[in-house]
Amino acid sequence: MSVTHTLEADVLRRQDPQLADILLGELDRQSTTLQLVAAENFTSPAVLAALGSSLANKYAEGYPGARYHGGCEMVDVAERLAVERAKALFGAEHANVQSHSGSSAVLAAYAALLRPGDTVLALGLPYGGHLTHGSPANFSGRWFDFVGYGVDAETGLIDYDQVRTLARNHRPKALVCGSIAYPRHIDYALFREIADEVGAYLIADAAHPMGLVAGGAAPSPVPYADVVCATTHKVLRGPRGGMLLCGSDLAERVDRAVFPFTQGGAQMHTIAAKAVAFGEASTPAFAVYAHQVVANARTLAAHLAAAGLVVTTGGTDTHLITADPAPLGVDGREARGRLAAAGIVLDCCALPHGDARGLRLGTAAVTTQGMGEEEMAWLAATLARVLRGETESQKVREEVRELTGRFPPYPG
Ligand SMILES: *Cc1c(COP(=O)(O)O)cnc(C)c1O
User: Fold this and answer.
1) Which of 50, 134, 184, 196 is deepest in the core (most CB within 10 A)?
2) Is-contact 200 77, C-beta < 8 A?
3) Mean of the pLDDT values across residues 26-36?
4) How do residues 50-65 score in pLDDT, each as one tens digit?
């Protein structure tokens, strides 16, 4: 395996060895350490091939059949294919596949449905709301009046009674559900009911679980939300990018919110790669993958709890786990550093109780590598050994190298 493919790697090596070394160094890092960052995955060589294709040269402002630029006949076919595959995969009436990222998709959803100054009810940032859900450092917090709901301090579960009360009191124009760290299924039907009660739009920011939805391993927000935003690069395993799904009634507003309101030219190489990923995600093999991602996460969570970590909500329904390592004598920030030195790469995150930092990890990437529940048990035990200081990080680094050698992300 080379950077994307041998020919391009050779060209790059000859022309710019400095950059080629960086890319190969990163490939080596990804292949010899454990990727437990919950938002990451390994795209297929086919997706990488589309990303590294001549479509990267093409300007295509507008939509298929209505472009500003000439010469769009081939990329129009690519975008139509991506849209049709996304609609079929998720059972949606309309799909927009142009958003450059998950954040851009959320911006477009707000642009389609809201005006500056509108009130929006979303999961508070300390509980796993995304930056685009009202952070003062983000456009969302500056341009809208965000009210945050929370999770129950004991159970870690979304406090739906509080959502209803806040919705009644603040009469938001939109309710947002979706999180960067919530490990459980979201009750989209209940959110819909609350939104209807107060006459609000429902926006589902399903960036994390959309790959599980594609594989039938998590409930779909599509039948309930007015607009669904997602990334294509998390569990869904496509290129870095965003997408929007909605009913036919909102199709035109959503399309205009993406282009021309918040974006210019579409990235056609990425859109082609999204089409490849949607094709992959509609296969029986991907459904098997999605279910294995969840089985691995459940096993990992159970073993982390057995090893002494406090697992938020007591487990997971998804690919994602958050846990407090405090009983092992470290906080999340310290733990992340020690684990990184041992070749175990993950994030630290806020926890529903108190100010201490916890750990956030996910099983999408390791499952793509073919790891199963036996490896998850080893992983939890090893992580606990590292955090307890019972082993040298260099020794674990070698064990991780041996394990990843048996499960290469890009065999051959
Ligand atoms: C990942 C994520 C995003 C943003 O995606 P980017 O591609 O990083 O902009 C938005 N919302 C949620 C809930 C996410 O998990």
Assistant:
1) 50
2) no
3) 97
4) 999 999 999 999 999 9
